[in-house]
Amino acid sequence: MLESVVSRSDNRRYEDSSDLCGPESSIRLAPMRRTGIFVALPAFVSALLVSSVAAATTYQVGPTRTNKNLGAIANSLKAGDVVEVDGNATYPAVTFEKSGTSASKITIRGIKVGGKRPIISGGTNTIEASGDHYVFEGLEITGGSFRCFFHHADDITIRDSVVHDCPKQGILGADNDSGSMLLEYTEVYACGGGDKDHQVYMATDEVAHPGSVFRMQFCYVHDANGGNSVKSRAERNEIYYNWIEGALYHELELIGPDPAGGVDASLKREDSDVVGNVLKKTSNFFFARVGGDGTGESKGRYRFMNNTFIGAGASSTAFRVFDGIDSVEMHDNVFWWSGGTFNLMRTAEASWVAGEQVSGIDNWIRTGSAAVPAGWTGTLTGTDPLFVNAAANDFTPKANSPLVDKGTTTTASPAGHAFPSPLAKPLFHPPRRTLMAPGTAEPRPEVGVIDIGAFEYGTGPFDAGVPDSGSPEPDGGSSGSDGGMDPDGGSSPLADGGSSSGGSSGSSGTGSSGGSSGSSGSSGGGSSNGGVGPVAPESGGGGDDSSSSGCGVGGHAGGGGGALLVVAAWLLARRRARAN
């Protein structure tokens, strides 16, 4: 009954429009007394309308705007707000502490001017996200003396952005307070340094945000100043459809929480699903380290499927299994470099949870490659995978390639060590060594049996479905220690600088514009296992894609509330008519 709704409004705070959508909110005028209905209802509806408008403001920031920098409005932001930042201008570092909601995120959106993004530059942390539920898109982020993007919040999206020239960490998540992160359609380069700082470094707080996921998709990470290209201590990693190249050390390092960050490394198992990527070495080092780094160990399960590994030296080794680990499975991957053979796996430093658990189906390796796992079956060998143009970095197979129609989508984990909620098959190609605009990912065609590697030969229909990977809430990373980064595989850890959780935003700096592509809507929904929404590419130009549901109290600037205005006007007219 509406009377009960009105009376409860005196002592109950409505969090969103869903609170008004139960059976009690149906409007039945006949049985009700005039007193209360016609007095309380218009005021109640008016309050809702005011609340709806107040909850969704669009701010404009720029050299010619009232708000000259992001700091001017950061502490005024509320759920559903959108901040449009004019491009072709440079802005100082900023911290975002206010939170949106999962249904009404706060969006910080760069608007290109003259084809150039807004540049956020300088400070200790160029952008610090400590409030939850944000989308950052269309930005150029550079020059942070410690971190260019510092993530210690939950449900953070970075898309359609360029992060570069960060002398220490490019994008870093904290050991504590961090939840899920979606990183997509983003270019990262010229970040990191030495053996302690990395281009992308993630982790998750498994106490504050259990079930969190770091998903990275459709990204181009290249030309590191030092460290690893991508390092993560997250509870779950989903590394889908990326081009990752040019680390000083590992292209991927997927390990466990850092005890130096005050995290109980034994609390959860950290798993990683790595599908449809190009991993290209420009130095003579390992491609990927899994398990641990001399500090936190994952004791986790790892799955590599339909990836293309391109080596750079005679001692190139694909997998470095280190410290506590449960299992590794590899299917439909191609391992190649123009100069000779590969070493496939080093396990000297591994500490298996229940004995060595390695499986793999239909991988292609160069004849004579060493350290091939005994658990692999259906392995193909040859001298040339026949890429379209390897010298020009086109690793699509030719029509007569030994990779064509030789893969499988019927994969198997080691017995008793099933990988949870895997991506069943690759649905897209990775970017071709470039930054892609949101929504422009190239669907992987379905032409006969699936090909080995990250690219499919030919044209044809494609699977428009999305994987069952849910809506993970990424958890920031830490900078723990980077044990044993020496190329000979030694186990002595090299210090990685301790916990990443400290630090604050600082002053402004300068940067240069660059990058391309437009903006898009935010990712969708969640599943029971956490996940960062569907892996399908976002359609461009939409901003935050999450709209209110139920009774129609919208969360967007300029939207929602129209139907309530009509109802309010009708009720007022009816009141006057009955009063006469």
From TrEMBL:
It comes from the Bacteria. Residues 477-487, 499-544 have a biased composition (Gly residues). InterPro entries: Pectin_lyas_fold, Pectin_lyase_fold/virulence. The chain crosses the membrane at residues 37-59. The keyword Membrane applies. Residues 467-476, 488-498 have a biased composition (Low complexity). The keyword Transmembrane applies. Residues 1-20, 398-446, 458-556 are annotated as: Disordered. Keywords: Membrane, Transmembrane, Transmembrane helix. SUPFAM superfamilies: Pectin lyase-like. This is Putative peptidoglycan bound protein. It comes from Labilithrix luteola.
